[in-house]
Design a protein that fits this description.
This protein is mostly helical and 307 residues long. The longest helix has 29 residues, at 218-246. The protein contains 15 helices and no strands. It is 77% helix and 0% strand. It has helices at residues 8-32, 37-60, 68-93, 98-105, 108-119, 126-143, 150-153, 158-163, 165-180, 186-208, 218-246, 248-252, 257-270, 276-292, 297-306. It starts with 7 loop residues before the first helix and ends with a helix.
Length: 307
């Protein structure tokens, strides 16, 4: 084992991923105002799958052949990360404001970390625990406008309960992907998951009468296109590159930046005010990410000395 340079490039890519996913909350809210959640989920992935196939053929000359066990794995990825996550996401956003929904999504790193510890035997360190706590505290400050106690005073509705399924589905998707990444590129894994998941969504849509393109405004279709191209295709590839490079728990903590990105989009696109709680909370989120990804100097130094 050798000492490696810190992958600052993948950190920058994961920030881009978070920005895309922050915009996806706004796009999702726009789309479900005019489409059923199932129709929005399906057409998001129709667009994303076409984009992913184009990228796979342009950069990797197509998709590799899979063994039977790998087909089972990508089917599980499609069921968890595409069907379950996407339906929870769209149904939740139809009932919950994007900011509150993004706070629930901030549970992803904690649940993924727990899954990595339980199923992948990943080491639980104080840096990881403290980094996640600090980042979550920052998200709470941002979304509660400086008074986190307000988050627990309101009643929890059906939309919030549905959205809690998102981090569970995403943790399963992340950890299954970690198991099968060896020898298969991030683009191939993401494309296969999109293909299998889109097929499952199409079957559900056929039974419910949502298979044909819905009648919606250009604004709604542009929102779906953004979510499909950037909030899905690009973001998922960047996410899996992060899983490959720095592991599932560290990659997932960047999802804490998603609510911050959503707030920034609100300020820039919707004219929402920028207050001190957003600045303080955003700083805490970034600090939490840095804590989680801080190298452990002592073990690395020992390895270097031994090598």
């Amino acid at each position: 084992m050798s000492v490696r340079a810190r992958p600052f490039g993948i950190y920058a890519a994961l920030v881009v991923m978070a920005v895309c996913w922050g915009g996806a909350f706004i796009g999702g809210r726009i789309a479900v105002a005019e489409m059923t959640p199932l129709a929005a989920a399906l057409w998001r992935y129709v667009i994303a799958t076409i984009a992913l196939l184009a990228v796979a053929f342009a950069l990797e000359r197509g998709l590799p052949r899979l063994a039977a066990r790998q087909w089972l794995a990508v089917a599980l990825l499609g069921a968890t990360g595409v069907v379950m996550f996407n339906l929870f996401f769209m149904y939740g956003l139809a009932r919950v404001p994007a900011s509150r929904g993004s706070l629930i999504m901030a549970l992803n790193p904690a649940i993924t970390l727990l899954g990595a510890v339980l199923f992948l035997h990943e080491r639980l360190t104080r840096n990881k625990v403290f980094g996640i706590v600090v980042a979550l505290a920052g998200v709470a400050i941002v979304l509660s406008h400086g008074n986190p106690a307000d988050l627990v005073r309101g009643s929890v509705g059906v939309g919030e309960v549905v959205l809690f399924g998102c981090p569970i589905a995403w943790a399963a998707y992340t950890l299954i992907g970690k198991r099968m990444l060896t020898g298969i590129s991030a683009i191939a894994v993401t494309t296969y998951a999109a293909l299998t998941g889109t097929a499952m969504l199409a079957v559900l849509a056929a039974f419910s009468g949502d298979l044909l393109p819905p009648v919606a405004s250009l604004r709604a279709w542009m929102a779906i296109a953004f979510v499909g191209l950037f909030g899905t295709a690009l973001a998922f590839v960047l996410f899996y590159e992060g899983v490959r490079t720095i592991g599932p728990a560290r990659t997932s903590v960047f999802i804490n930046l998603v609510p911050v990105a959503a707030i920034v989009f609100g300020v820039l696109l919707l004219g929402e005010p920028l207050d001190a709680s957003m600045l303080v909370g955003g700083a805490l989120v970034i600090a939490g990410v840095l804590l989680l990804n801080r190298p452990q100097a002592a073990p690395h130094a020992a390895v270097a000395a031994a090598g």
